[in-house]
Task: structure prediction
Amino acid sequence: MVIFLSRNLEPSDQKTHRIYLNSDQVQRVYLDELGSPNQQPIGINLMQLTIAPDSVMAEQARLLIERVQLEETGTLPKNEILEVITTIAVYKFSTLSREEVEAMLGLTLEQTRVYQEAKAEGREEILKLTVPLLLKTGMTVEQIAQQLNVDVEAVQLAAQPSIYNEHP
Result:
């Protein structure tokens, strides 16, 4: 299967792959010719969402979220499909705040994997910056872990010298 956004994006020089393109082994799909989104499988809607212009992407994402919540999704769990939709939206609208993306999609991002990963990365970065400073004050790893409400292992990892927290 070869997927194109539209027919006009299909390469005009087909000599290299002519044998495959002219056989029944390859099927061309043009995303802009698939029809109404609610007539298509959810997987196709996800692909269309990735190429949707910003001006319509939010509405398409919101409608797809509603559809996923209402319909049977087959073998894919609904929460995984919602993760993909929110991830696409977060990347597509990277200049917007979390609150703006939430309002646009009509859902809360705090439960999504992309939000949890970003939060964990932020927590790690803060530990890398603060733990060496706290150790210099004489606090023990255990005291720091207790005060910051984190595992001792996380403090030990942050205490290890790295190119990020070493100062000349």
